[in-house]
Design goal:
The protein is mainly α. It has a domain at about 1-40 and about 120-180 and about 190-210. It contains 9 helices and 4 strands. It has helices at about 15-35, 45-70, 70-75, 75-85, 90-110, 120-135, 165-185, 190-205, 220-245, and strands at about 5-10, 10-15, 155, 160. The strands form 2 sheets. It has a two-stranded antiparallel sheet. A two-stranded antiparallel sheet has the order 3-4. Strand 3 (about 155) and strand 4 (about 160) form a beta hairpin. The protein starts with 6 loop residues before the first strand and ends with a helix. Keywords: Cell membrane, Membrane, Transferase, Transmembrane, Transmembrane helix. This is Diacylglyceryl transferase. InterPro entries: Lgt.
Length: about 250
């Protein structure tokens, strides 16, 4: 397989990252629209929450991707700036979106949890996006470290690497099945999102040890540090709800 794997017929070909990113956004927004049409939050408030989340996600994705690749600032600052314009990270988008939603809720006076409606759109959208990352190859910078395992993938530099993008797709499928079963129970409002948050960030913290990232603090990357903060927040919310329910 030659990366990037362009998609199309004949001379008409599109970059895989663009194709899967567009599909991911479209499917995720369609699922979110269906979910919010069923909840008890007024449309005006829900629209404000969605917009606040999208703005927060954009800001968070850009800030964290720049921190993640801070090693390029002094050695190749042009690439660093280009990465800031074009790059983004799912963890930064997730945590930035969470902050944006919470700030918006305080602004409009909404106290009800709103996260459950986002869970499956996020799961499906992220999985689709990771397929595009895999097909893009080295330029996406989401590949893993060198491995001698039989499923190592040569993304174009002659070295077999962990296909961490596919690991994430597989994990998201399993997490989705687990959360789908939980959704059938009578869970407190917001519990599904907190389970998703802790589960996904826990996976990202672990799998990022298989990535050749800039790790400035205690052998951890900025994405891993952000994951730890998000996990702490999610566990705090889960434990607080357990105490409230009991």
């Amino acid at each position: 397989m030659v990366f990037p794997v362009y998609l199309g017929v004949g001379a008409f070909k599109l970059h895989p990252h663009f194709v899967f990113e567009v599909v991911a956004y479209g499917v995720a927004m369609g699922l979110l629209r269906r979910n919010v049409s069923r909840d008890a939050i007024p449309l005006s408030q829900r629209s404000s929450v969605v917009i606040g989340g999208l703005i927060g996600a954009l800001v968070g994705a850009k800030i964290l991707v720049l921190l993640q690749h801070g090693d390029l600032l002094w050695s190749d600052w042009r690439s660093w700036l280009l990465l800031g314009l074009q790059g983004k990270t799912v963890v930064g988008a997730l945590l930035g979106g969470l902050i944006g939603v919470e700030l918006t809720k305080k602004w409009i006076g909404l106290t009800r949890s709103t996260g459950d409606a986002f869970v499956f759109p996020l799961l499906v959208g992220t999985a689709l996006g990771r397929v595009g990352c895999f097909l893009t190859g080295l330029s996406d910078r989401t590949y893993g470290t060198v491995t001698d395992l039989p499923w190592g993938i040569d993304f174009g530099d002659g070295l077999p690497r962990h296909p961490t993008q596919l690991y994430e797709v597989g994990f998201l499928m399993v997490l989705g099945l687990i959360l789908a079963r939980y959704r059938q129970r009578d869970l407190p409002n917001g519990r599904l999102f907190q389970l998703y948050l802790v589960g996904y960030l826990g996976f990202r913290f672990a799998v990022d040890f298989l990535k050749p990232d800039f790790q400035p603090l205690l052998g951890l990357s900025f994405i891993q540090l952000a994951c730890l903060l998000g996990i702490a927040y999610g566990l705090r919310q889960l434990l607080r709800r357990e105490v409230t329910v009991s």
